[in-house]
Write a structure and sequence with these properties.
3 domains; CBS-domain; 13% strand; binds zinc ion; 11 helices; globular
Length: 365
């Protein structure tokens, strides 16, 4: 996600904070400062930071469980609305999906129990709880964790409860039927939230709309996963690709940019092997401070990952997501460029699969 700052790395997963989260934190601190002074500001900021630490631990519940099943997570990003972990894929086995989904809320439940025990033991008799600001912070945090666990267990995508419901249904009915039913239940719940919210709670209306959109998106994604199963990178790559020779100038790159509809260009060496990737943004960006004669090698993104045409498309897509690049060069057995796998092309395949679920994308070699 752009506008995120990486603050560290735990067990191979980069922890990123979105700039809006920092703004949110500043806003919390500032408004508390105006209303209740420095002390209140400090307490509120500490509470929010502690709360989001719990959100992060929740995400690591998912991440570490997924890792046990061989699924990596390149990064997790903290947003004001919560944490987003970029799991490379959802496990296909329902039992594994269930464990990965339930691990997040389970973490919040454990934290809540620990906090309650800590708060309880800190106060013999438990009488003066309310007066002690530190204890009330712990109590608030415990309550927030219980809320997080319950909220996330709402049985609707994209909540963890939706995944749990899907996994349980899939054990009995198979993944496709389970998805239809889970998506239907999620959308039904979204309507209930929206309807109840109309009587005075705008947040519920918002949650309803959010769940409705997410449930539809989830169904679409799964149709797509089914579509690409068994396909190779070769079946999905763009084959009419203009490349830029490594010795070309920025002037040449501009000419090629204008002559083709492409936005990403593989940069190739004398043997036709990819040596880098040049994006439209990089070309335009270079015009500001470089001459027409400057070599493209200076601005090309390199080294770049490549894909083999015979690789599974699922693996190719995972690489594309992990590469944080709009495209990846595809090579043959000799390492020579034969195509380009782009996000745009994948999006087009998704549109085709939606219009015609039985469409065969397999290409002849
Ligand atoms: Zn979760």
């Amino acid at each position: 996600m752009p506008w995120s700052i990486t603050i560290g790395r735990v067990a191979g997963t980069a922890i990123r904070i979105h700039i809006t989260f920092l703004m949110f934190l500043a806003w919390i601190g500032f408004s508390a400062l105006q209303q209740g002074g420095a002390d209140a500001a400090m307490r509120n900021v500490v509470f929010i930071v502690a709360l989001f630490l719990c959100v992060l631990l929740h995400e690591f519940g998912h991440i570490l469980t997924a890792r046990r099943f061989g699924i990596a997570t390149p990064d997790v990003t903290l947003l004001p609305i919560g944490g987003v972990a970029s799991l490379e894929r959802i496990p296909e086995k329902p039992s594994q999906e269930l464990l990965v989904a339930i691990a997040g809320p389970a973490v919040n439940l454990v934290i809540a129990i620990v906090l309650v025990l800590v708060a309880g033991s800190a106060l013999p008799g438990g009488a003066t709880t309310i007066d002690n600001p530190n204890v009330s912070l712990v109590a608030r945090l415990a309550f927030a964790n219980i809320f997080l666990a319950v909220f996330n267990m709402i049985p609707a995508f994209p909540m963890d409860g939706g995944r749990v419901l899907h996994a349980v249904l899939a054990m009995k009915l198979g993944p496709k039927r389970a998805l239809q039913i889970a998506a239907r239940i999620g959308q039904g719940l979204a309507f209930v939230f929206g309807f109840v919210g109309l009587f005075g709670n705008p947040i519920l209306v918002f949650i309803g709309i959010f769940i409705y959109i997410a449930a539809s998106g989830e169904a679409r994604d799964t149709v797509f996963r089914d579509t690409i199963k068994g396909l190779k990178v070769r079946d999905a790559m763009e084959t009419r690709v203009a490349s830029i020779p490594i010795g070309a100038t920025i002037g040449d790159a501009v000419d090629i940019l204008l002559a083709t509809p492409q936005h990403e260009f593989p940069v190739v060496d004398g043997h036709g092997k990819p040596a880098g990737l040049l994006t439209r943004d990089a070309i335009i960006g270079a015009l500001a401070d470089r001459t027409r004669e400057a070599p493209v090698a200076e601005i090309a993104q390199a080294p770049i990952p490549t894909l083999r045409a015979e690789q599974d498309l699922e693996k190719g897509l995972a690489d594309l997501n992990a590469a944080r690049s709009p495209a990846i060069s595809v090579v043959d057995v000799d390492g020579v460029l034969v195509g380009l796998l782009t996000r745009e092309n994948i999006a087009e395949m998704m549109l085709i699969a939606q219009a015609r679920p039985d469409w065969s994308f397999r290409r002849e070699t």
